[in-house]
Design a protein that fits this description.
The RecF protein is involved in DNA metabolism; it is required for DNA replication and normal SOS inducibility. RecF binds preferentially to single-stranded, linear DNA. It also seems to bind ATP. The chain is of the alpha/beta class and 388 residues long. It has nine helices and 15 strands.
């Protein structure tokens, strides 16, 4: 959980410092004030491209010095033991370019995490963990972040790639090494596709080496996804019916049978003609069913789909806390606006029970009246003000 969040030249925020407490963090303000930008900044403290999947260069504030910074201090966590003392991390472009000294001692177990870009390399992401440069995939070992945004309301009718990315975020919370396997698989697949696109004879030895890498990491990806689907499916099935519909889950499409390397070798001509690889875990899909109705989620109403998605994320947060001892940070953008009062109350109760930090946005405070204790912030024209 975040005890301090610092933004520098991020989106419409020139500079902002927040000191959220444990539990609920509520950001209210007019549309366009910059509330979702704050959630996006937090989402960048996990592997991946954040909740908007935007190019890094789009995140730097227009009119700023170039580049941006997002940094946080994390509350002590039970996930890791023997954490070293943190270091100060100021998320300016200059500080991202050079390591910082350790001018202060932090409380035992705290850690410092930061990410950003430089003006000279707007699409090169830099990550620092306790002052040391790290790969973005290493963020999964320190913080788990999940989100729901209005754009995700159509998740069940979007192309399969959107559901795969959603499933991979769920999997990453339970298996921090999942991001590494996914990155290595994607890198090997891109290299193979480039080789197959070249004119003339191909280097068979190189192709075989790449296909062996894809088979190794593809098997790990498939196994981790299936474990997540199974454990989450069990948790959903055991829950009583409530205000949020229960989802049945299955992984469809490609299945690892131990023959991917051979299948890829045999399919080189086919893949060259198609201009892409047609076998592997990148061809899988997450199938979601409304358990009570025994109906595919894609055929459910918009309201039912939203309820399914909410129930799925809540169950996953509970599963993650139970299995890792660390509840994920949840980012819920405009989640309360379209719920009736009884469902809002049920949502707040479920969220509080996870024990995690929950960031929520809204245009008004009234939908959050029943939330109890929270860290409240007003957002207006890129300015963030704490209030009671």
């Amino acid at each position: 959980m975040l005890s301090r969040l610092v933004l520098t030249d991020f989106r419409n925020h020139a500079e902002a410092v927040l000191h959220p407490g444990r539990g609920f963090v509520v950001l209210t303000g007019d549309n366009g004030a910059g509330k979702t930008n704050v959630l996006e900044a937090v989402s960048l403290l996990a592997p991946g491209r954040g909740l908007r999947r935007a190019p890094l260069s789009d995140m730097a504030r227009q009119g700023g010095a170039g580049g941006f910074g997002v940094a946080t201090t994390l509350f002590p966590s039970r996930l890791r033991e023997g954490l070293g003392e943190g270091v100060s991390f100021a998320p300016s472009s200059k500080d991202l370019a050079e390591p910082l000294p350790n001018p202060s001692r932090k409380q035992e177990g705290e850690s410092q995490v930061g990410t950003g870009t430089l003006a000279t390399a707007p699409e090169r992401r830099i990550v620092r963990i306790n002052g040391a440069t790290a790969a973005a995939t290493a963020l999964a070992e320190w913080l788990t972040v999940l989100w729901l945004t209005p754009a995700m309301d159509r998740l069940f009718v979007e192309p399969a790639g959107e559901r795969r990315r959603f499933l991979d975020r769920l999997t990453l919370a339970l298996r921090p090494d999942h991001a590494g396997h996914a990155n290595r698989y994607e890198a090997a697949m891109r290299a193979r596709n480039r080789l197959l696109a070249e004119d003339g004879p191909h280097d068979d030895a190189w192709l075989s080496a790449l296909e062996a890498q894809m088979a190794e990491h593809g098997a790990a990806i498939d196994a981790a996804r299936r474990e997540t689907v199974a454990r989450l499916g069990e948790r959903l099935a055991d829950q009583p019916a409530g205000p949020f519909a229960r989802a049945g889950l299955a992984l469809e499409g490609w299945t690892d049978t131990g023959t991917l390397a051979a299948d890829l070798a045999q399919g080189r001509r086919r893949d060259a003609a198609a201009g892409r690889t047609l076998a592997g875990p990148h061809r899988s899909d997450l199938a979601v069913t409304h358990l009570e109705k025994q109906q595919p989620a894609a055929l459910c109403s918009t309201g039912e789909q939203k309820a399914l998605l909410l129930g799925l994320v809540l169950a996953h947060a509970e599963l993650t806390a139970a299995r890792t001892g660390r509840a994920p940070v949840l980012l819920l953008d405009e989640v309360a606006a379209h719920l009736d009062p009884s469902r809002r109350a049920a949502l707040f109760d479920r969220l509080a029970a996870t024990g995690g930090q929950v960031w929520m946005t809204g245009t008004e405070r009234s939908p959050f009246d029943g939330i109890g204790q929270a860290s409240w912030y007003d957002v207006a024209d890129g300015r963030i003000t704490a209030r009671s």
